[in-house]
Write a structure and sequence with these properties.
mainly alpha; three-stranded parallel beta sheet; 7 helices; 3 strands; 39% helix; globular
Length: 172
């Protein structure tokens, strides 16, 4: 079983997770570092590993910064704040690419988002985590276009819902 321990949680949650022997969560998008050799923090053996969660934008939208641009367009962030977030994101992305290339999971010549996602999933699968959560929507080719329905805290968009295609041929 997994205890949700992401972000700000009440003080007793993490000790309770340990006390009851539950697994915590490791979400790669929250654990990225701009240091190329440490772009992805090691995953503890008592964690569920994932790239993101259902409460986050799909990986393709994260990679392209689409949710940041939406927040600026909706006046939830200033243009300057959005540019700062995107600059930090570019550093994270560059470090991640270097990391995955140095792990021999990604070709040095590629910048294809599907290749990057695939390499990241392989890295997660090789870690010590006993479980891995894979959201299907990031595997969809058009998931970036659908990203807006996964923006917590954005009232105009929060109620939009969609379904993931059942055509698994699109996932390859």
């Amino acid at each position: 079983m997994v205890g949700e321990d992401l972000g700000t949680v009440p003080p007793g949650v993490r000790p309770a997770i340990r006390r009851y022997g539950l697994h915590g969560m490791h979400v790669a998008c929250f654990q990225m570092s701009p240091e190329p050799g440490q772009a992805l923090k090691p995953i503890k053996s008592n964690r569920l590993a994932s790239i993101n969660t259902h409460d986050m934008v799909p990986f393709s939208a994260f990679w392209q910064g689409l949710e940041v641009r939406n927040r600026v367009e909706l006046d939830l962030q200033t243009q300057m704040e959005g540019e700062l977030v995107l600059a930090v994101r570019e550093n994270l992305k560059s470090a991640l690419l270097d990391f995955l290339q140095n792990q021999a999971l990604l070709d040095f010549r590629t910048s294809d988002l599907r290749d990057i996602l695939h390499a990241l999933l392989i890295w997660l699968g090789r870690c010590k985590a006993p479980m891995m959560l894979v959201n299907l929507e990031p595997l969809e080719r058009d998931s970036a276009a659908k990203h807006s329905r996964h923006q917590p805290g954005v009232p105009e968009l929060a109620q939009q819902r969609g379904t993931v295609s059942r055509d698994s041929a699109k996932w390859h």
